[in-house]
Specification:
heterodimer, A: mainly alpha, MetI-like fold, 12 helices, B: mainly alpha, 2 domains, two-stranded antiparallel sheet, disordered N terminus
Chain lengths: ~280, ~300
């Protein structure tokens, strides 16, 4: 059993530590020795204009993907749960987006979004609207990428919600029916509060994962026409492997990690307060 | 009207008609039901449409696609000639490499994860809290951040440009989830069974595993699939650690094809479809188990 533990230490914790260390050096992909330069990388990030925008688009993206995936996922779960005929078929169809490899999703949507040969613009052309630069328009690109990400992620939310719904006791529904509750009321006051704990943890997971989503964004925009989709993870990749500034890249990564850690800490604090209030 | 709970998740649970709230006649419920099915139809359409489009792109000819007037129906092209790929696209060796990485990751992950899960489940280690935290933590890490130190580590051990490097790294990331899934299943096995085996003279390690492992076999299968997919779908590490072309995995190969104007789109899409088959197939077969394992912790809060 300690074998597994040691394995993780070697392959994850140690590289993690190395990366954090690297964020304090001026290491470069070109090799050669690296010097310890303290907080210089971080200072540089915050003083040269670009990083602020990277941070902002990342936060918008994470918020958009999380909200989108939660709404669509929970909504689909609620719809699917009450279906009796062909429930397995519908559920299977809705899971497919999550099952597809993300690289394929990226390539596919690159073709769908293509301004000239893409099918979306073809349909719009039919409807009389002109071409839209789904991923070439700087402000639209973020939302296009977010939409694709939601498409990829919502099935997971749906599955977890379905599981949670399955453990709700039938009596609760019977009681609310006797009280004469409408569909919406049942939803708001019975169903949602009961599955809320699962929803909260799924939301946290979605937030954390949104920071990591790389393949789709990379294939579609490589960081956006003018940094419009230059999320932290993209920024990290470009800084490290294209600009070859490993130290800077590591510092970006640490900041990104910091957000995930904050989200997790916030979650646990809120949970604790909730539990003690009860 | 009966209540029927089937499956360990309660899928397809049938509840009395009054489930909808108001006790109403069938006719009054019709508009709600219609809206319900309509929305569901839209959701399914949105979920499936892109995949349908993938098939569409794969079955039309290049000239049709590039003309800017794509046909909305499936074409009759033979999947862009996937059965007879050009000589300079070694799709078979790509698929073989992806398979090697996937299977390797799967085996390594479940071997390590099964023993870890067993220890966590049966022995009151002080490690449980830290391990749970570890699972979470590894989910949080941007793998792009770890690529660089991993690269230099592998360089030192002369494991670069070797599929083994991918197996090792992908297994490291897949293992925590596997432990989660398998431990969830092991926890559900009552301790009395352990005692019974011990009374019969079974040693902790050997006999216990011969009893417990078969019982949690479905979860191990699910974990194996999750780990396999981790290795199969990986792009970042495959891109960074492998240099010789004959060791490329399919994700690296596909990405390299795209953007080159010499390769026809239908062919790329056909390969993409091939690449998607194992994950989709496994998912469909395993969806219940995977979710059951993933939510073992989540649902209970």
């Amino acid at each position: 059993m300690s074998g597994a533990f040691a394995y993780i230490v070697v392959f994850i914790m140690y590289p993690m530590g190395r990366s954090i260390w690297m964020s304090f050096t001026n290491a470069s992909l070109l090799g050669g020795s690296s010097r310890f330069i303290g907080l210089d990388n971080y200072r540089q990030l915050f003083t040269t204009g670009d990083f602020g925008q990277s941070l902002w688009v990342t936060l918008v993206y994470v918020a958009a993907v999380t909200c989108g995936a939660m709404v669509v996922g929970v909504g689909c779960a609620l719809l699917v749960e009450r279906v009796r005929t062909a429930q397995a078929v519908v559920r299977t169809a809705l899971i497919l987006p999550w099952a597809m490899p993300t690289l394929v999703v990226g390539l596919l949507f690159a073709l769908i979004f293509d301004p000239n040969i893409g099918v979306l613009n073809y349909v719009l052309h039919f409807a009389g609207i002109g071409k839209i630069g789904w991923v070439t328009n700087n402000s639209l690109a973020l939302w296009s990428v977010a939409a694709v990400s939601v498409w990829t992620v919502f099935p997971f939310v749906m599955l977890v919600t379905l599981a949670a719904l399955g453990s709700v006791e039938g009596e609760l529904y019977d009681e609310s029916a006797v009280d004469g509750a409408s569909v919406w009321q049942t939803l708001r006051f019975v169903t949602l509060p009961t599955i809320a704990p699962s929803l909260r943890i799924v939301a946290l997971l979605t937030v954390i994962w949104s920071f990591q989503l790389f393949q789709v964004t990379w294939v579609l925009t490589e960081g956006g026409p003018i940094n419009g989709t230059n999320f932290l993870i993209i920024n990290l990749y470009k800084t490290g492997f294209i600009d070859q500034q490993l130290g800077s890249a590591a510092s970006i990564g640490v900041i990104g990690l910091g957000f995930s850690v904050c989200a997790t800490v916030a979650y646990f604090l809120l949970e604790r307060r909730r539990n003690s209030a009860v | 009207m009966s209540v029927n709970v089937n499956g360990m998740l309660g899928y397809g649970r049938r509840l009395p008609v009054r489930r909808w709230g108001k006790i109403s006649s069938r006719w009054r419920r019709l508009p709600v039901k219609t809206a319900h099915w309509l929305t569901l139809g839209v959701a399914v359409a949105v979920a499936i449409a892109p995949i349908y489009w993938l098939a569409n792109l794969a079955t039309h000819s290049e000239s049709d696609i590039v003309s800017g007037r794509p046909s909305l129906l499936l074409g009759f092209g033979s999947l862009g000639g996937v059965t007879d790929p050009p000589n300079d696209i070694p799709i078979l060796s790509w698929l073989r490499n992806s398979l090697i990485v996937g299977v390797g990751t799967s085996l390594l992950s479940i071997v390590l994860a099964a023993s870890a899960a067993f220890g966590l489940s049966r022995f009151r280690f002080r490690g449980w809290g830290t391990f749970a935290f570890l699972v979470f933590f590894t989910q949080m890490l941007p793998s792009a951040l770890l690529v660089i130190p991993l690269y230099s580590m592998l360089l030192t051990f002369n494991l670069l440009n070797n599929l083994v490097s991918l197996v090792l790294v992908d297994a490291a990331f897949a293992m925590p989830i596997c432990v989660w899934i398998i431990k969830g299943a092991m926890d559900r096995i009552p301790r009395e069974l352990d005692e019974a085996v011990r009374l019969d003279g079974g040693g902790s390690l050997g006999l216990l595993r011969r009893v417990i492992l078969p019982l949690v076999a479905p979860s191990i299968a699910a974990a194996a699939v999750v780990a396999f997919l981790g290795g199969w779908n990986d792009f970042l590490f495959a891109n960074t650690f492998i240099t010789s072309e004959n060791l490329w995995t399919t994700s690296k190969g596909l990405a390299s094809l795209y953007g080159q104007y010499s390769t026809p789109i239908p062919l790329i899409m056909a390969f993409a479809l091939l690449f998607s088959l194992p994950p989709v197939a496994f998912f469909l077969l395993m969806q219940r188990r995977i979710v059951a394992g993933l939510t073992a912790g989540a649902v209970k809060g």
